[in-house]
């Protein structure tokens, strides 16, 4: 091990770069501009009074069923076409279970494992000409609510207006840092 790497770890243990290779990728969440939320008819409006754009569907009450917003699907497909992706012939949603105070259902509806769009690309101008950014997948999901920490000095407040807001998650191909330079 080099003296520089030993100085970084300070333990005599092998430096991580001797065992692992650093790769860089992006995961971008983009909010879709629609009138209603991803899986309910609640308004998708920014800036309204807290907790006014919620219903039993957004809150995940027992017996309620989400219904996919057709505009969200259309916009996701348009994003896939714009990035030269393959569009899946069928859609499948899943529940990603986790607990956050601002996630009232206790799960997020997502296509994380079965994306609607795969294997695309975006060409952008860069140092020395056009660069290709590979798109691994684009999938639809919903946002969580919003925890507010700066209004009350003793409590965290929760605004559920954002819960269910439609998103697409765009995941780039992993790249080696030297290939990412100039992007």
Q: What composes the largest sheet?
A: 5 strands, antiparallel
Strand content: 25-35%
Overall mean pLDDT stands at 89
**Model regions low in confidence, pLDDT < 50 over at least 5 residues:** none
Helices, by number, come to: 4
Helix content bin: 10-25%
- End-to-end span in angstroms? 32 Å
| Form type | globular
What are the secondary-structure elements, in order, as H or E? HEHHEEEEEEEEH
Q: Find the structural class using helix and strand composition.
A: alpha+beta
The overall number of domains is: 1
> How is the largest sheet built, in terms of strand order?
1-9-6-5-2
- The tally of strands reads 9
- What is the C-alpha radius of gyration, as a whole number of Å? 21 Å
Write the layout of secondary structure elements.
Blueprint: H1 3-9, E1 27-31, H2 56-59, H3 70-82, E2 86-87, E3 94-97, E4 107-110, E5 117-126, E6 129-142, E7 146-148, E8 157-159, E9 166-172, H4 177-180
Antiparallel strand pairs: 1-9, 2-5, 3-4, 5-6, 6-9, 7-8
Quick structural overview:
This protein has 183 residues and is an alpha+beta fold. 15% of the residues lie in helices and 28% in strands.
What do you see in this structure?
The longest helix has 13 residues, at 70-82. This protein has one domain (22-180). A hairpin with a 2-residue loop joins strand 5 and strand 6. The chain has 183 residues and is an alpha+beta fold. It contains 4 helices and 9 strands. The chain has helices at 3-9, 56-59, 70-82, 177-180, and strands at 27-31, 86-87, 94-97, 107-110, 117-126, 129-142, 146-148, 157-159, 166-172. It is globular, with a radius of gyration of 21 Å. It has a 5-stranded antiparallel sheet, covered by helices on one side. A two-stranded antiparallel sheet has the order 3-4.
